Amino acid sequence: VSETGCLSIVVLGASGDLAKKKTFPALFNLYRQGSVKAEDVSEFLQLMKYTSGSYDTEEGFRLLDKQISEHEEAKSSADGSCRRLFYLALPPSVYPVVCKMIKLCCMNKSDLGGWTRIVVEKPFGKDLESAEKLSSQIGELFGEHQIYRIDHYLGKEMVQNLLVLRFANRLFVPLWNRDNIDNVQIVFREDFGIEGRGGYFDEYGIIRDIVQNHLLQVLCLVAMEKPVSLDSEHIRDEKVKVLQSVEPIKDEEVVLGQYHGYRDDSKVPDHSNTPTFASIILRIHNERWEGVPFILKAGKALSSKKADIRVQFKDVPGDIFNCEKQGRNEFVMRLQPSEAMYMKLAVKQPGLEMSTVQSELDLSYKQRYHGVTIPDAYERLLLDTIHGDQQHFVRRDELKAAWDIFTPLLHRIDIGELKPISYQQGSRGPAEADELLLRAGYIRTHGY
Ligand code: BG6
């Protein structure tokens, strides 16, 4: 292992989808890059052991503990400390019982130091009440410093870039506020539907699946004040303040959609009211952002697969070039695919005439960082859990504040008071969402 002592990574739910698609590939890539050292592939595979057992009985966990202890005895180096990482690639309903079993049977017992940590995936609850209940159940067993709540958007290259861009560039510092920024969009689009995840998805819907976590985390990083330092508590303190400043969501600033054909999934009820698309305006009541709409938009089965952050600046006062016709300045960060950031600017149209045209200062990662592999979000986050860095993980109070924002809206959707509008698969979503965007003040420029 990369540090002294022995590291055991236990993936619970090893035969499930998440483990197969994300956890194991991330572990393997870390191994390949030497972050988790081993001589060759066969050695890596030999390091893996499979144990089966049920989640709610001591027997299986005692066996697991025995196996970990044997591994530790065999591998421990001189300092003897033992590190145990439990990755719960499981449905949240079993988190409490599994945590209880880990606490009862599988904690690190070495006198020479080390630790036990648990990693959990969203959804952390379905609303404020259930999330708080889950947090308390786990919180009774483990300290906050032992719990790593993954939101994989926090492991994405461009999301991690936000802090650097905002706080390491003099250029942005004076501009990043209500005096200069007109509106902000944070958009997630997928060009496929729920693809066999009907059971899970219909229970949660797009707001719980994407908006309340991934997009809201991005919003925090766009909107937060400069933290005292890069210490994980300092960063999360600032994120919580942003979340606590979000005003209650207004009905007229929400557009919900459901793609045509969604209910054909065998696990989706015929009268499902679950949104597969949502566009929601959040307003932050503080000195920096009062009056600036943050439009969070997410949808399945749309025309493209893309996630980006689009910051649109206000018009130039006293414009002498008639720039308004060309469009406003925009700063865009494309999170995926093909990471990029670009700035839309008015420039002189090359040639004899004095006319303006909108052009772009373009930093496309593929071209600029040719040959550099951008690590998958899960690789970074797994490594962070091993190193004990919680900067990119969601703290309990952050989670509570996030649920505070969306719970009233979600309850109204759950009881059918708000209904999604049907939209065609492969479209931009309901036309009403584009109207909402224009009402929010966004001025469309060519190409968007
Ligand atoms: C997951 C959601 O959290 O994020 C999925 O449950 C979604 O519905 C996925 O497809 C998107 O992740 P990414 O990294 O592909 O944008």
UniProtKB/TrEMBL annotation:
One of its GO terms (molecular function) is glucose-6-phosphate dehydrogenase activity. Residues 36-161 form the Glucose-6-phosphate dehydrogenase NAD-binding domain. Residues 163-441 form the Glucose-6-phosphate dehydrogenase C-terminal domain. Its EC number is 1.1.1.49. The keyword Manganese does not apply. This is Glucose-6-phosphate 1-dehydrogenase. InterPro entries: G6P_DH (IPR001282), G6P_DH_AS (IPR019796), G6P_DH_C (IPR022675), G6P_DH_NAD-bd (IPR022674), NAD(P)-bd_dom_sf (IPR036291). It comes from Linum tenue. It catalyses: D-glucose 6-phosphate + NADP(+) = 6-phospho-D-glucono-1,5-lactone + NADPH + H(+). The lineage of its organism: Eukaryota, Viridiplantae, Streptophyta, Embryophyta, Tracheophyta. Catalyzes the rate-limiting step of the oxidative pentose-phosphate pathway, which represents a route for the dissimilation of carbohydrates besides glycolysis.
